[in-house]
Amino acid sequence: IPVDPFDLVIIGGTGDLARRKILPALYRRFCAGQMPDGARVIGAARSDMDDAAWRDFVGAALDEFAGAAGCDDRGRFLSMLSYVTLDALGARGWDKLAEMLDSSRVRAFYFSVGPRLFGPLAERLQRHGLADEGARIVVEKPFGHDLGSARALNVALAQHFDENQIYRIDHYLGKETVQNLMAIRFGNMLFEPLWNSQYVDHIQITVAETVGVNGRGEYYERAGAMRDMVQNHMMQLLCLIAMEPPAKFEPDAVRDEKLKVIRALDPVEETDVVRGQYLADGAQPGFKEHVENAESTTESFIALKARISNWRWAGTPFYLRTGKRLRARTTEIAVVFKDTPHSIFGPEAGQHRNILTIRLQPNEGIDLGVTIKEPGPGGMRLIDVPLDMTFAQALGPEAEGVPDAYERLIMDVIRGNQTLFMRGDEVEAAWAWTDPIIARWEEAGQVPLTYDTGSSGPEEALALMHRDGRRWREIR
Ligand code: BG6
Q1: Ligand 1 test: best mutation among 233, 237, 298, most atoms within 8 Å of CB?
Q2: Which residues carry out catalysis?
Q3: How far apart are CA 253 and CA 53, in angstroms?
Q4: Predicted complex ipTM
């Protein structure tokens, strides 16, 4: 969908997120013909720089992070960029910024800075007449550290901006395959009638990573996997899998349904959570070295059992696990259906279950395990085979042109579409669920279990499912 010329101000324009994600995403959209003539991207940060110096900075960022994306016209993209030296907490630069902007256009302010600056920035935007209707602000995670701090941020932003001007990013929602969850559920007749506790035995959500926390130790030591992944990304996946069908694919219709899921989550039992920390591996440092704290009790792995108390899901557990330095990088959701109520083939045919696996990354696709007769004359033996659809194969070149999460989300800000952004009450409800879990282990000074690099996490995570007569899918 084409957009009108806009002004995008990246506050924190010399930071890591700008370099790695925001600027490459804008460049790719430019190459795809989506940045209209006259659109402007203004970098704002404390460093003294002029336009030319920031353009050099951006050029270097594109070389490093824009991947294969590129077009002949990089010069024209760079000519859309300008820079203003801005003191977020002081007076410097604000008048100049206000003069540069065109109040007849959409103006988006991307707060690519730590959350402690969100409130002061919103206040200054308003003081300089920049918070009117055409203005939008974009904020990144972490949106707070707990319920209290998230609430304070919401209050601070609400003093200057309406909720419909605030875009809280969870980049998982911008992933094509995550949006596909909604298409799979609500665009097909096949699945929805079975999508409940009568037919679904349990659901597993896995976000496994091979990377460690090196380079981000300071942030991660304070966050841990629960705050870094579960409260936001995994919660969003859970919501999209569990929510009732919204009446329309519209921001509040979708967000209302997600909120209902979060509010229906039961408190998590102490025995339903397993925390782990990765060990050193030969020359590779372990978690404690990465966060430079030999006493660290922060978790780099978490597995837990969640329950949703509503008509659709009562009795169907949701098992969530995520961790760093695991065996493979894989994000998938497995919907494990119940056994057939009766086997006409007798006990020797064995137990067979349908499993719908939605692979979010890598190798995006869906796979439905179905039971068939084993070929051959040996009688009625049953085996499970995959009905596998890898999107790259099924869609061919179309699958390659898929924009990355930030491209999609930034353009949605410009279009004014909040469907894929978190609403303030959603974020608060998610913290309200995770806070007591975290508080319990913080109060007890709980030390996480350990696990080896390249493993599936601590053994106890396996036991979490075994004791329910279930097992995790392999991480591969
Ligand atoms: C970020 C977390 O939000 O998401 C990181 O802070 C994590 O710790 C990352 O590695 C995972 O994102 P993706 O897109 O690589 O799955």
Answers
A1: 233
A2: 233
A3: 44
A4: 0.99
